Amino acid sequence: MRSLITRGTTRGFTSYAVAALALSAGALSVGAQSFPARPPAPTAIAPAQFPPFQQAVLPNGLKLLVVSNPRLPVLSISISFPAGSQYDPDGKSGTAEMVAGLLTKGGGTRNAEAVAAAIEGVGGSISAGAGADFLTVNVNVLSDNAPLALQLIADAVMRPTFADKEVELYRTQTLSGLQLSQSDPAAIAARVFARELYGKHPYGRSADPASVKAITRADLVAFQTSRLAPRGALMVLAGDITLARAQQMVAAAFTGWSGMRPAAGALLGVESSRTATEVVLVHRAGSVQSNVVMGNLTWAPADPRSYAATIANKILGGGADSRLFMILREQKGWTYGAQSGLTRQLGTGYFTASTEVRTEATDSSLKELLTQLHRIRSEPIPAKEFDDAKNSLVGRFPLQVQTADAVASQVSTAQLLGLAPDYVQSYRQKLAAVTPVMALAAAKAAFRPDAALVVVVGDGTKLYDKLKAIAPVRIVSPDGVRLQPEDLVVKAVALDLAMDQLAPRSDSFAVYVQGNVFGFLRSRLERAGAGWKYIEDTQLGPIMQQHTEVSFGADLEMTAVTQSGKAQGMDTKIDVSYASGRAKGSATTPQPTGGTKTIQVDAEMPLGAIDDNLLASLLPAFRWVAGAKFPVALFSSGKGSLTPAMLSVSGEESVTVPAGTILAWKVDLTGSDQPVTFWVEKSAPHRLVKFASVGAPVEMRLVK
Predict the structure, then answer these.
(1) What is the pTM assigned to this prediction?
(2) Which of 439, 466, 488 is the last residue of a domain?
(3) Strand order in the sheet with 335-343
(4) Residue numbers of the domain that contains 337
């Protein structure tokens, strides 16, 4: 055995040695030759390898587009209608989104659960959504299940049930989302930007609580029957299917479907009347960072300058290697990210550049954004920077159309926007043909820093003076109410409370997370000399333990707040005293990005303002009636800032909690960082029955 091993090892070593000598000889031979001084010229860009597109129009006017690819047994189907939000009835913004959201919640003989069971039973998916211009239903299945997929789509667009239960559930979810968005600076910025950019054009509208509450089931049915018609609709089928099979199955699934082409929408062209840069400052008291969105209108979707502008945008802010990202984040350290983009719509599109920065860096960041916009449209683009951006866009496009649903999406978008018939196939060649001179010309047309709309969402008290040194500033509240500079100062007024309703008491709440008990909150209000002390102990499983004490006088004048505990194993602490109209102390609180932060608190505390930890304990003393609204100045002792908030009675509900079934006022707290809904017992003593943070799966329910 040993001799065999030895021979084998020797034989292997000999063969390796011979190979090494051969390679060395080759290397010496090559070394004697001269290498080319320049790399070879790039070959021509090959067209994107798409299967052939085949089109047909059914007798009812439905346009079919089939992209046949039998390599995998999968199929993606989409059907789109000119039924986006621009067609919402006046005063009922949100109709298109509600219709889209309910199409898959019951159709034909199936209710919402049956639709879900049918599609999930074959491993597929179904969804629907509405944008500004179009409403689209998408289904992805294995190709053997194409008949079921088409049947579900037909039920959705021809025979939606709009069951009352589903309508009200969707309305509730939408209203909760809108309430949460009122405290989301990014959502506020997007809403204000659209309104200011498009003005009275339908593109500038957005849903609000009043418009969503105004939508009736009859409105949904009317929208569906008038807008979801075969004429003007486009169905794209991509994957393992032929045109002949598609025509046969679609005709069978949509038997009896007819209808006139929907009425055209508003005039699609929008001309900008802005001749100079303007800043719209959305005052959000207490914000520690600012959301900045700036931009302008561009052009129609088929404008040939779009290819060159796409490359210019890639250089400006289209990725982690772009100028905005590298300068604002990597060089300056002002933000976690900065980006820009071009949006196509059926009408006039738009350009945006955006970032989120610390309050202290807001004006500097805005100046840098404007500087980079001027630079991209005035300086020749360096060759390497241009080539890198163009090659990135050209090279990654095939990766964006690898799946059937991706192909369907690209083809559908091109068709709906009226782009060239070969737009998708020729996209890479058109990008590759762009020159630096063309990109510079497109940047001059697409990016207009001297006539830009700038929306800044942040603390106006800290931003106004700095921003007005850059451009004229108009101040508005998050809901669009015009403000004056003097309105930036929070004016607290004494709360008109029924103090005789305050009495020593103890309450115990169970904390529910996604419907399961996860902790507790126990509180008590007790006399402390001539004043009061509120004491609260909270535990959320192993995540958080917290003890809070707030002292205040008989006239509601704050005295002190102390808080101690742990959040995810980290120590937290607040120790703030209130005296002579000021709040002074320190606070160590957990941060969204991890860890804790300690701040020194020294801020104005106007008469009438209350510590935010105290609000829940005072609710029994408010004078509750239907439709009541109570402005409340809340001081966040953990942030050292004052916020004008609003308590609003939005209705009444019968609430079941461990303590029993209780008729309660539903009260919404808005204006604070986190919107909250309270349920307050309708009859005396007006106990707090339940409360929950909007958008979070956490509720506190009264136990005793």
Answers:
(1) 0.81
(2) 488
(3) 335-343, 350-358, 289-297, 453-458, 278-283, 473-476, 482-483
(4) 278-488
